Recover the amino acids of this structure.
């Protein structure tokens, strides 16, 4: 199990954030490379650990930057009402130390509007949290995350 410990300035305001890299799944990158087509570079974002999210979500902006094509749609319950949002398949990597990543390939993610989350490009949901150990240390403005 790989672990990361993160100090977060004013965590109560910003939430538990992890450095995330999102890119095309490895098989898609290999196919594009084999066909001598351009491969979009990985997108680095902040991921907010969200125990209220059933599944992991990424911003629509990230989808556009990676030129992702939807695999389908899923019904999501929001604070206001249910909405249908596109679902994509990506490789999501958590940076556990400088230049060292823990990757989850072929992860299905939804892409709802992440309103009010200007600095967040990803919500880490219970689909990932189900396989992890997450410790929120509010008094120390830090988190520990193991996967």
């Amino acid at each position: 199990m790989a672990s990361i410990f993160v100090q977060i300035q004013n965590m109560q305001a910003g939430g538990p954030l992890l450095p995330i890299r999102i890119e095309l799944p490895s098989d898609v990158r290999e196919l594009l490379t084999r066909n001598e087509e351009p491969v979009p570079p990985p997108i680095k974002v902040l991921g907010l650990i969200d125990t209220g999210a059933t599944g992991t979500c990424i911003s629509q902006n990230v989808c556009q930057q990676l030129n992702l094509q939807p695999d389908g749609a899923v019904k999501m319950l929001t604070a206001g009402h249910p909405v249908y949002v596109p679902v994509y398949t990506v490789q999501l990597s958590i940076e556990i130390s400088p230049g060292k990543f823990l990757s989850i390939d072929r992860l299905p993610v939804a892409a709802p509007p992440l309103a009010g989350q200007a600095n967040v490009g990803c919500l880490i949901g219970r689909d990932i949290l189900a396989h992890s150990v997450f410790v929120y240390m509010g008094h120390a403005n830090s988190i520990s995350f193991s996967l």
About this structure: Residues 32 and 39 are 6 Å apart (CA to CA). The chain is about 15% helix and 45% strand. The longest strand covers residues 82-97.
